[in-house]
Amino acid sequence: MINILTFKVGTRYDHRSVNLLKRSIDFHYDGPFRFICMTDNATGLDDDIEVRGLQDSFEYEFNSVSMCKSGFVPEGEDCILMDIDIEVVSDPSPIFDFNLLPNQIGFIHKWWTYPYERGSFISGMAYRFTAGELDKFYTRFNSDPSYYTKRYKEFNGRDHKIDNKTIFVRGEQDYFLECAGIYNFHMNLFPSFWAENVNPEIDFGYGGTSTRLKKHLGYKAMNADRHDDLIFKHYSGNIEAYLDRRYSLYEFH
Q1: Whose C-alpha in 95, 136, 153, 173 is 20 to 30 A from the C-alpha of 106?
Q2: Rounded Cα distance, 112 and 211, in Å
Q3: Which residues contact 214 (CB under 8 A, 6 or more apart)?
Q4: Is 137:129 a contact under the CB 8 Å cutoff?
Q5: How far apart are the first and last CA of the chain?
Q6: The model's pTM
Q7: pLDDT single digits (tens) 115-132
């Protein structure tokens, strides 16, 4: 059984994003799973979602590190840590059921940003790992949260406003990647086209001539037999529009 771990903090995302993620997994995945949401507000979450309170007082995206510490789920169990603004659109078993080696972590390749002008080559939408093995990621961050938060904000040179408070975008991805290297983890990049973050262009027609849309279409043209491989769709930046379109599809739950 796999543990799906996610978190919801503040008001940018509401219960619908969490429920959409959970319900879309229910719809497409036949295997057993446990869904845990760490949050400061559980209002509206489906009854079959296991709710945990916030573990630490980390900045927004770095709350994900809290779910890697030993004891959050029993050691040795399969886990995937996921952003809440994701819809699972086909069978996720190639990722959920992937057999990890000891000290191996599975990353989503951020192919749509090649040549990675800013930030890392992995996406923060999902990390596949074994419970207990990433405790050192947590211990390192928890030794000086202010330092690591500031460091990765400066590294990426980008911030974002949520609830009128500056939070840090992408920094946690670079932290996970750096830790994987420092602690000598095997890194598995799941195939391109299993996940995408070009939703504004593909679903809503925004930025019709954007660089990443051109790359998206160009890469897919070179891999014409891979068009139906999409598993995770990340809709960050189009939250309300996407939920208005997709949430009702899962209200049978």
Answers
A1: 153
A2: 9
A3: none
A4: no
A5: 21
A6: 0.89
A7: 776 668 899 899 999 999
